[in-house]
Amino acid sequence: MKIRRLPVLHIEGYKEASIKTAPKEFLKPEHVYIPTLLPSPMEVKKEIGDHVLLGEVIMESRGRFPYPVLSPISGTITGKVKKWYPSNKMSDMLEITNDFKEEMVDTFKNLDPENMTREELVEIMRKSGLVGQGGAGFPAYVKYATKEKVDMVIINLAECEPFITCDYTCVLYNAQLFVYGLRYLLKAADCDQGIIAIKDKDINAKVIDYLEPLLDKNMRIELLKDVYPAGWERYTVETISHKTYKALPIEAGVIVSNASTCYSFARLLKEGVPPTVKYLTITGDAVNSPGNVLAKIGSLVPEILPLFGGLKEGHDPENTHIIAGGPMTGKSMFFPDFITTQTLGAVIFLQNKEDKKKQVECLGCGRCAERCPSFLTPLEIKKELSVGNLEELKKLNVTKCIQCGLCSFVCPSRIDLTYSVGKAKEMVLRLGRK
Amino acid sequence: MATKYLVTNAPYLRSADHSRSTHTIMRDLLIGLSPVILFSIFKNVILVLINGTYNSVFQAIYPLITLIVGPLTSYLLEMLCIFIMKRKEIAKFSDLLIEVKNGFAFFPGLFIVLISPVYVNMWVLLTSIAVGEVIGKMLFGGFGQNIFNPAIVGRAFMAFSFSNEIGVSVFDASLNSYLNSFEATTIDSIAGATPLIRYSTLTEITYDNVVTPFGNLLNFFLGTTPGALGETSVLACLIGCIYLSIRKVIDYKVPLIYVFVVFINTLIAGLIIGQGIWYPVFQIMSGGLMFGAVYMATEPVTSPKTNLGRIMNAMMLGVLTVLFRLVGNNPEGVATAIITMNIFGLIINRYVVRVRVDGKLDKNEIPGLVIFLSIFMLIFVYNIIKIV
Question: Which residues 189-208 in chain B show a CB within 8 A of chain A?
Fold first, then answer.
């Protein structure tokens, strides 16, 4: 199939602020919170009052691809409370009180990856509850359990969104472990080509220097252009493998995993620790000293914040965004007391610069359509959405939207196009199912 | 409970915040227009003052007055319209000012002045601006909602409703309004007012007949020929075009294709009737073609939104301009072509939206493209046959 040139755009990175200092650690929270309803309804296996070990299965997701949710600490389940989840929704969560003993379950002790078969590796990946840590949260084992022939495994280190540096930090401070993880990801996929996709920009030179001597013969680094959305799975696969696909990268013989996923897998195999920690970027112009932190999953963000000097004095909450995730695709939160998850990469406190003047009408410049990496026409979609014309929306292929945010980003009239297209996509998917 | 933080929709970075807001685009448009405005002031005010051919100072600075009164009129009219239409939403006077500011109300008036004769009657001008602003823009819902280019609506209204008054100078009923008082003394009175008006009355087309009364083709390029206030200088339009293209306010392909189609079409017709290369060059440099191609055909609100759509639009504009100007013998060919394509632009927009889906041409769209190309070729060939 012919490769199209996907429209992309260079965006200012703002990454320097959070990589000046070494990552901090936040591994001993008083309590952790495990949501029971998000991202999908869970089947809870434990009762309030039960004692749990680190890595014990607390609940299980019952979707199309079931995966277990493990306890990130050892302790006692002390109650069911309502807390904020990083999608700006409130959810019931199990509260686990830490006993600070870090007692682990036996499942992952003394693994010997050298002598494990591909099936065993995939099975241990499933048991560990590892999900893709790039943001989508798709269970990682599903990709590796494929029956297709895998040509290459691409580790996505592009980190194309501005501000976020968690993958960068993760690899920079754990380069050896990271390569170790990739080695066994290749084994789990039964393929002999491992590619680390990284953006070609100044700050990444350090990571590349660190990684290069550590790599095995069957691994190599591929440079991506410093554009947004370079980390989009489709862009990465199409630029590196020169093949295109319809729905999933495996159609092109490629498995894409995030760098943090690779790191978590390495820790699982080498140290027997299931994915219970995650690098997290805390940054933005309202934070005193931005940086990265290795935090337990399920900790509360306000408890982590003091490590970074807290929020600046005099920031106006009513004019400050708390963004869970990247500034292009993340969600803004009402309150800072939400929990961290396996898929959360950054928390950004960004002071709003938008002037409060009334919005300007659409000029019709067509920049949104020009820049859409999925070749959609956001302004027409918005128009059709306002009259609720479902047939026309289907013809406009709204379901292809990846919500990258570029249309809203380039709009000179700052119209919320991404939101409208997202709503249209939701509507088509919902009504199409009936 | 703690204070709620600000919650809006992603993304939280917008290019409109620092570099590319609609306001900067409009500011750039004004800068892109400035060569044209400056040249028109130079030609119609300063040259007249230097040569002292005026009867009164008022006559000499009359073009300057229209350049101020025109935009002001459309600004005040927009304010009035917004006040009437959105009375309930507007609490303070400053709200009203922001609304008008976001409507970019100066532009319709400014454009109408620039494409009108130099000494047109003030009441004719103001009525046209009122029609363009109110009927062409505000009745559709204001900035961003209009189907027709408001300036062209006003100009077309002027051409069709005041066909007697438009050509007569407000200062001297025996003179043509297209000639400023300096040109009225230098251009031979039998030459006719503008090159295109003269051209439409000619029975025999030769270089000596068409171009020589106004000097040579360099005069056309520099813009020292009679014509509407801002339209005459090809050079000024080109400077504006380059600036606006670099600033990405306009799509340079539109003027390029538009002018190229007119050039090729008249070149072929000219060669068949035995004219040299001067004939197509004269056609692209005379009248409002350059001004229309750079500033009017590229107007984003009323032109198609996608790349292919804009190319189709520009191609059709080219053949339609030749059709209206040379076959229909109507000096207002550019304005008529643009207003026609405003209507068909809606269809192109609707149609090309689907062509673009998925980044490649859909098989279902090929019949449509074939129909478009056939209509284009049909008018193209018809133009040549009729001119010959």
Answer: none
pLDDT category of residue A27 using cuts at 50, 70 and 90: confident
How many Å lie between the alpha carbon of B337 and the closest alpha carbon of chain A? 20
Contacts of A365 in chain B (CB under 8 A): 25, 300, 305
3-state SS, residue A331? strand
Q: What percent of chain B has pLDDT over 90?
A: 38
Cβ within 8 Å of A, B 101-120 = 102-103
A192-246 pLDDT per residue, tens: 888 888 888 878 888 888 888 888 888 888 888 888 888 888 888 888 888 888 8
- Reduced to 3 states (helix: H, G, I; strand: E, B; else coil), residue A305 is helix
A415 contacts in chain B (CB < 8 Å): none
Residues A408, B99: C-beta atoms closer than 8 Å: no
Q: Tell me if B358 and A411 make a contact (CB, 8 A cut-off).
A: no
Average pLDDT over every residue of A69-85: 88
- The structural domains of chain A, with segments of one domain joined by +, span 107-271, 367-433
Chain B environment of A424 (Cβ under 8 Å): none
ipTM exceeding the 0.85 mark: no
Query: What backbone phi and psi angles, to 5 degrees, belong to A47?
Result: -105, 165
Query: pTM of the prediction?
Result: 0.86
Please give the Cα distance from A194 to A200 (Å, whole number). 18
- Give the integer Cα–Cα distance in Å for B39 and B46: 10
pLDDT band at B353 (very low <50, low <70, confident <90, very high): low
**Numbers of helices and strands, H then E, in chain B:** 19, 0
Q: How many CB pairs under 8 A join A and B?
A: 165
**Long-range contacts for A187-192 (Cβ within 8 Å, ≥24 apart)?**
A187/A113, A187/A116, A187/A118, A187/A121, A188/A118, A188/A121, A188/A122, A188/A125, A188/A144, A189/A118, A189/A144, A189/A146, A189/A150, A189/A153, A189/A255, A190/A118, A190/A150, A191/A149, A191/A150, A191/A151, A191/A152, A191/A153, A191/A255, A192/A218
Nearest CA in chain A to B310: A366
Q: Distances in Å between the alpha carbon of A199 and those of B11, B105, B255?
A: 21, 45, 38
Pairing label, strands A254-258, A152-157: parallel
Tell me how far apart the terminal alpha carbons of chain A are, to the nearest angstrom. Answer: 33
* Contact: A361, B2; criterion CB under 8 Å: no
What's the CATH fold of domain A107-271? Rossmann fold (3.40.50)
Interface touch B143/A360, C-beta < 8 Å: yes
Chain A contact for B23 (CB, 8 A cutoff): yes
**Residue B252 β-bridge partners:** none
- Smallest CA–CA distance from A354 into chain B, residue: B17
A346 touching B (Cβ < 8 Å): no
Cβ <8 Å between A412 and B305:
no
Angle, alpha carbons B359-B369-B338 (nearest 5°)? 100
